[in-house]
């Protein structure tokens, strides 16, 4: 692929993104023909253009644009690895990435789509690869992992330059190993997923451990171990 993505520049200029407090997803402003939102995060929203469908455009909130150069540099450090998207270009407002087919693990759970164990192995291998590149594998969670032909593709590498362990992947892996069989193949309502997400974000204030958090979730939802 070359600079075919530039046909989407005008459409992207019609859109702005603003961040929200409390780590809530961004808000999208404006509208443009031929542009479809395919993902929303806390710093940016991702779009696909019908005129350049092989690309994904990660448009950052106006107060988060300082992260663009950082994420582009992380992609450069990661190089050509099958675990991640490819970054083709960066501008002052957005990154130009390869469009990746697949379903996020978050949507897999919403739809009752089976998540194979291979996904966990792929993410573990990707984390080892990230460390080998001198980076830190953070912020790996349900919305940042695609199920792609039975394998894992990791999205959003922006936090790999930050120190410390957020334990999001460790908790997700443990939840899969200990509790996923309860919901495997069963669609989970969006409201329940959002409720559990908000509980999780408050877990350090409310629970002494991740196990206590999971016991609380099981007690106050319709799923039983």
Structure keywords:
5-stranded antiparallel beta sheet; 10 strands; globular; 3-stranded antiparallel beta sheet; alpha+beta; 225 residues
Any chance you could write out the topology, listing elements then pairs?
Layout: H1 9-13, E1 16-18, E2 27-29, E3 35-40, E4 44-49, E5 52-60, H2 67-78, E6 87-90, E7 94-98, E8 103-104, H3 105-111, H4 117-132, E9 145-148, E10 151-154, H5 168-183, H6 190-201, H7 203-206, H8 210-219
Antiparallel strand pairs: 1-2, 3-4, 4-5, 5-7, 6-7, 8-9, 9-10
Q: Quick gist of this model?
A:
This protein is an alpha+beta fold and 225 residues long. The chain has 8 helices and 10 strands. It is globular and about 50 Å long.
Low-confidence stretches: none
User: What form results from the Cα inertia axes?
Assistant: globular
- Major β-sheet annotation: 5 strands, antiparallel
What is the radius of gyration computed over CA atoms, rounded to a whole number of angstroms?
Answer: 18 Å
Q: What count of helical segments does DSSP give?
A: 8
Strand tally is 10
Q: What pattern of helices and strands is seen along the backbone?
A: HEEEEEHEEEHHEEHHHH
Mean pLDDT: 93
Notes on the protein architecture:
- This protein has 225 residues and is of the alpha+beta class.
- Helix content is 36%, strand content 20%.
- The protein is built from 8 helices and 10 strands.
- The chain has helices at residues 9-13, 67-78, 105-111, 117-132, 168-183, 190-201, 203-206, 210-219; strands spanning 16-18, 27-29, 35-40, 44-49, 52-60, 87-90, 94-98, 103-104, 145-148, 151-154.
- A 5-stranded antiparallel sheet has the order 3-4-5-7-6, covered by helices on one side.
- The radius of gyration is 18 Å and the shape is globular.
- It starts with 8 loop residues before the first helix and ends in a 6-residue tail after the last helix.
- The mean pLDDT is 93.
């Amino acid at each position: 692929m070359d600079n075919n993505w530039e046909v989407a520049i005008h459409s992207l200029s019609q859109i702005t993104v603003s961040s929200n407090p409390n780590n809530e997803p961004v808000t999208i402003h404006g509208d443009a023909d031929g542009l479809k939102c395919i993902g929303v995060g806390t710093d940016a929203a991702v779009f696909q253009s019908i005129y350049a469908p092989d690309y994904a455009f990660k448009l950052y909130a106006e107060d988060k644009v300082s992260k663009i150069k950082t994420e582009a540099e992380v992609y450069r450090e990661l190089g050509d690895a099958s675990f991640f998207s490819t970054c083709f270009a960066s501008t002052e407002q957005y990154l130009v990435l390869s469009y990746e087919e697949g379903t996020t693990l978050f949507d897999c759970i919403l739809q009752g789509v089976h998540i194979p164990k291979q996904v966990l192995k792929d993410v573990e291998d990707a984390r080892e690869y990230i460390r080998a590149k001198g980076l830190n594998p953070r912020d790996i969670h349900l919305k940042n992992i695609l199920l792609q032909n039975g394998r894992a593709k990791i999205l959003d590498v922006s936090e790999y330059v930050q120190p410390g362990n957020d334990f999001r992947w460790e908790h997700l892996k443990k939840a899969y190993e200990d509790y996923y069989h309860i919901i495997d193949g069963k669609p989970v309502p969006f409201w329940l997923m959002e409720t559990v997400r908000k509980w999780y974000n408050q877990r350090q204030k409310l629970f002494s451990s991740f196990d206590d958090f999971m016991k609380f979730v099981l007690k106050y939802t319709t799923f039983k171990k």
